[in-house]
């Protein structure tokens, strides 16, 4: 029996039995150029500057999402009739959900306007190795995968497996990011949570026995955002990268950017120009890091300083403003800091930035958007929202938010003095 094994630090053995058409398809997709590119895209962007072990990539995460989705469907298949063709679509979608991601997580995407969801759909539906592999298996498969990624024509439990408050994506990235950061905040009992999964109507739900596992999962999500994703060093580095790319964009518009050349995919992305799929394949963390190396020795002092700061971990310092409740007061404080930097001879456009990261661990039930809810099924089959069942739902439904001012080291004292 032909079998391929991938050893994974989160899921251990990920096996593909190549005599099974669906497994053979998935293994071919893994070896497609578009998917292999994800080896060169860090899962957590600049987080390794705070957590040295966080150098894992979107390639391993995407494999983990597929394996988690596979485990979810296997569990559901013990009680329900799971159609093999639909399962193949679901697993392909799980594997490919991040194939359109740009460099450094979401940072470059926000500036270039290249939304990873749109690029993922283009890779699935247009002329690419991924598209050809899908179409060779089934001419309708590219469209079926694209439809599922967009939850069309309606939301079903298949969509919930890919994108929901209990999806394979979140399950994997919390465990994987927890492992590689060494934070120990994001661990939860995935095995028991999977065991509690069920289908109610045509939606994913959990049995009442799984409520504690869901609570632990949502608490891990809270802690990971609080301590990892919103870590002040991580946010400072991501903000500096945004400033560097903004500066490079300005220079490119003015035709003053010496590197890279105008035909380079990075240069085109900076200007928001259309990229072919082949050009997009060249856009990764490596290409952006090479730009930072070139820019660090360039003539533009602003871009050079930002690039050196990112390359050698000379990051902006953080002034916590979270104790200020009034947004208007926060704006006044930021303006005072900007004026102080200007008075000291700096350019506040590139010497400071205000950051307000926010997330809600649990999206409280909204009758206008019932598709977002986590549903709990009791022993009699009755469905109840998680918010009505769990005493922790109120706390988990509160927004987690920080207000921070990040300032370059030379102007930290001036900014601090101005806002006291």
Strand content: 5-15%
Q: Oligomeric state of the chains?
A: single chain
CATH class of the largest domain: Mainly Alpha
* CATH homologous superfamily classification of the largest domain: Hypothetical protein af1432
Report the mean per-residue pLDDT as an integer.
94
Terminus-to-terminus distance: 71 Å
Q: What's the helical proportion of residues?
A: 40-55%
Largest beta sheet, briefly? Answer: 4 strands, mixed
Kindly provide the radius of gyration, computed on alpha-carbon positions and rounded to a whole number of angstroms: 23 Å
Q: Largest sheet, order of strands side by side?
A: 3-4-8-9
Number of self-contained structural domains: 2
User: If helices are DSSP runs of H or I spanning 4 or more residues, what is the number of helices?
Assistant: 22
CATH architecture of the largest domain: Orthogonal Bundle
Q: In one word, what is the shape?
A: globular
Poorly predicted tracts of residues:
none
- In the CATH hierarchy, the third-tier topology of the largest domain is known as Hypothetical protein af1432
Total number of β-strand segments? 11
- Which structural class do you get from the secondary structure elements? alpha+beta
Summarize the structure.
This protein is of the alpha+beta class. 52% of the residues lie in helices and 10% in strands.
